Structures are given as C-alpha cells and as structure tokens.
Amino acid sequence: MVDLNLHGANVFALTDFKAPSADVEGAILAGRDVQLSNYSVNDKNVDAYGGYSLIAGRNLNFSSGSIKNGNTYVGGTANVTQSVDVYGKKIQTGAANAPANLTALATQLKSTSNSLSTLATTGSATVQWGGLNITGSKSKVEVIDIDAKTLSSVTYFNFSDLSSGSTLIFNITGTSGAFYGGYQGFEKYNVLFNFYQAKDLGIHTGLTANVLAPLATVNGGSGVINGNVVVDNWLSSVQINANHYFKPTTVTGFMTPVPEPETYAMLLAGLGVVGFMARRRQRAAAR
C-alpha cells in the first residue's frame, strides 16, 4: 500500500518551512523551524494528528497572519506576535508533549520515495510539439518515468489509455526539477510526482497533484499546488490548497518501508502490556 501517512497534513517540510506571504489551506508539519509572515494557516479546517493546524519540531516565528481552527505545537520556542490571530486555540510547547515523531515520518517518506522509484513502468511519456503525451495501459495504477529536464520543458499535456480516476505515479529522475506551463487534466486522477533525486524544485504554475520530493528545497516561484506537498525545505510564497490529497493505493511491486527501531520498540511495548493484562486475567480466573 502506497500511503504518504501525513495524518491529515497538507504539507510536510522535513527540515524548515519559511514563507514571507501566502497561505496553506490545511495543516503544516515541519521537522525543524517554521517562519511565517502575512500568512494564513488551515483556513479549511483540515487538521493533522487529530487537532493540529501547525506542528514545528523546533522553533516558530510568526509575525503576522492567522492560525485557524486547530491547535499549534512547537518543540522549542514559539515567538508569535500579537498581530497573529490564533482564534483562541492553544500554542503548546515542549519536546515531551510532541504529538508526532516527525523524524521517523521523514525517514519513512524517504524510503517510500526510493521504493516508488524502483517500480516497473506501465506507461510512457513522450514529447511532441512542446507538449507531453502521457500514455497508459488502462490499469488502475500507472507508473511512468520522466526525466526532470523533459518535465520542465513542456507546456501542456495530452492523455490517452488512462482509466478514469486511476492513480498516476510519475518517477522523476534528475537533481533539479521544475513545474512550468499548464497542468490541466491532472485533476481527473490520483497523481503523485515522485522527485526521488531532486535537490531543488521550482514551482511556476498551477498544479493539481501531489508532490513527494523529500531531498528538495523549493525556493521562490509562483502559482498554487492543490494537493499534498513533501519537501526537505520550503522557502516560497506558492499557495498550497487542501484538496486532491493523495489517496492510499495498492501498487504491485511496492515494498512498504520497514518501521524504524523506535516504532518496533513501541509495538513490542504495547504487546508486552497486552500479554501482562492477559496473564493477570488468567491468574484472577484461577483464584
């Protein structure tokens, strides 16, 4: 099962999320620091981890804007000016109370990106007259390989032999990628662009798709993304909207990432508690 496991979040920056303006309609996760100004968070009330609009692993600096609907967690210091409206919600600080293990989530998403990159292709993408012809196999899941230079060179897309509502996984090779031109038509599918090698990623268009680029920094740009976004660093005013989130999908050949040792420890601890309670009930019944 391919699942980004973002627990409702709109965007996850594995390191820092910094933006001088714009908004994220859903919830923000950042492994380290969040720095915002003239910014709106979670206007659409799509919380992460059961009730959070924003989770920062280290520090939060927020000079103007709003955090709507959900609570905020900050692992380190929260510097939020009076001009930021939090609508009466809590800003919780302290590493001991973390609602999520973002380090483990980052490791899992890197593994997911690598695993996706090894999938056998089912479709193709060819350039013609400045556009990209995407041809599938009429399957529920299509896997298509494209190099980043090709993707950044095209200005429109044609689709053929794709099943309605199918999942399209694009594995993008290359250390530098970008979105330009018109991306009409992708809203009909469950789309994931997997930039498994990219160190930098440019956004210069409107895009209805999900982006998995766990090694990449998004710096500057313009436009809007409708969907989930996973990057290493976000340094941009591109708007991120809370719709067309990636739907978990069974994909033939996908190797589910192995849980981190900490996850195993938590599982074993839970099993230990279950075993203890079972033995306790047995002794009580024998009396």
Entry summary:
This protein has 287 residues and is α/β, with parallel strands linked by helices.
Structure description:
This is Choice-of-anchor A family protein. The protein has one domain. The protein is built from three helices and 25 strands. The chain has helices at about 100-115, 150-155, 260-285; strands spanning about 10-15, 15-20, 20-25, 30, 35, 40, 50-55, 60, 65, 70-75, 80, 85, 90-95, 125-130, 130-135, 140-145, 155-160, 165-175, 175-180, 190-195, 200-210, 210-220, 220-225, 230-235, 240. It has an 18-stranded parallel beta sheet that branches. The chain has a four-stranded parallel beta sheet with strand order 3-6-9-12, with no helix packed on it. Strand 14 and strand 15 form a beta hairpin. The longest helix has 26 residues, at about 260-285. About 40% of the residues are buried.
Element-by-element helix/strand order: EEEEEEEEEEEEEHEEEHEEEEEEEEEH
Mean pLDDT: 92
Biggest β-sheet description? 18 strands, parallel
Q: What's the Cα radius of gyration?
A: 21 Å
Pick out the low-confidence regions. Answer: 262-271, 273-278
Characterize the overall form: globular
Please report which band the strand proportion falls in: under 5%, 5-15%, 15-25%, 25-35%, 35-45% or over 45%: 35-45%
Count of DSSP H/I helices: 3
Structural class: alpha/beta
Helix content: 10-25%
Distance between the termini: 47 Å
Q: Total strand count, please?
A: 25
Total separate domains: 1
